[in-house]
Amino acid sequence: MKQTAPAADRNMGIVRDRLLEIVPATARDLLEVSSGTGQHGAHCAPAMPHLNWWPTEFDPERLASIAAYAADTPSRNLMPPQQLDVTANDWADTVQPERTDVIVNINMIHIAPWDACTGLLRGAGRKLSEGGLLIFYGPFRQRDVETADSNEAFEVWLKSQDPAYGLRFLEDVAEEASRHQLSLSEILPVPANNLMVVFRRTDA
Question: 110, 166 in Cβ contact below 8 A?
Answer without folding.
Answer: yes
